[in-house]
Amino acid sequence: MTFLMRFCAAVVNVLCLPLHLMEAVGLYQIYKRIFPICLYRISINYNKKMHDKKKELFRCLSEFKKPGGQLTLLEIGCGTGANFEFYPPGCKVICTDPNPHFQKYLKRCMDDNSHLNYERFVVASGEDMGSVEDDSVDAVVCTLVLCSVNNIAQTLREAHRILRPGGAFFFIEHVVAEPSTWAYFFQHVLQPLWYYFGDGCEVTRETWKHLEAAGFSELKMRHIEAPLIFVIKPHIVGYAVK
């Protein structure tokens, strides 16, 4: 099965040669302008299917508010703001994303979620959020982002840095399937094509291992099977406390 998987992945990789060339000459940047439109529509469907899971996870956010203060939350890779409806009223939100073309959709989502206090939008990658001060936020949220960052460990170090002591990192991420499954097989076969469709997304990552090694004082994490297409069905959900 391993040989067949590698052979099929190589075939798909060859078929993706035009996409590789587009990226090499910079034409793939055009898709980055279109991707927010695609993600906006995908996020609506994802939220419908994952509504209960998100609601259950984010109801814990208020527990990390400083006594007598306002909950300050930073979202890494906020995209179109698909998580905003789940945040508690009065929450102050700082949004970051490396793609500036999301800002138009983000503003639309903020207008639809007037229960939040929108502080600012920062164009930044998860690996480098230098404009955000150390120990400055109560919670960091990261959903479907660690699949596409260049360096998971560095992104987690940045999240840990900006969290105040006792703050929490909340996550929902799709991960690689069990090696004995057909989902695992097709994840590896389709990865070269999925990378371009998902703007750098990788479905073969063992993200939970990075979370376990990130140095948080407490990690609450579950592996679940999300009600989604088999390629992104395996998920991890939970939060880690600084």
Note down, in words, how this protein is organized.
The protein has 242 residues and is α/β, with parallel strands linked by helices. Helix content is 39%, strand content 22%. The protein has seven helices and seven strands; from the N terminus they run H-H-H-E-E-H-E-E-H-E-H-H-E-E. A seven-stranded mixed sheet has the order 3-2-1-4-5-7-6. Helix 1 runs parallel beside helix 6. The termini are far apart. The mean pLDDT is 93. It comes from Nibea albiflora. This is Methyltransferase-like protein 7A.
Strand order of the largest sheet: 3-2-1-4-5-7-6
Coarse structural class: alpha/beta
Shape: globular
Rg, Å, rounded: 18 Å
Percent in strands = 15-25%
The rounded distance between the terminal residues' Cα atoms is: 41 Å
- State the major sheet: 7 strands, mixed
Low-pLDDT runs: none
Number of E-type strands: 7
Number of helices: 7
Q: How much helical structure, as a percent, in the residues?
A: 25-40%
Give the ordered list of helices and strands. Answer: HHHEEHEEHEHHEE
**What does the average pLDDT come to?**
93
Protein name: Methyltransferase-like protein 7A
Organism: Nibea albiflora (Yellow drum)
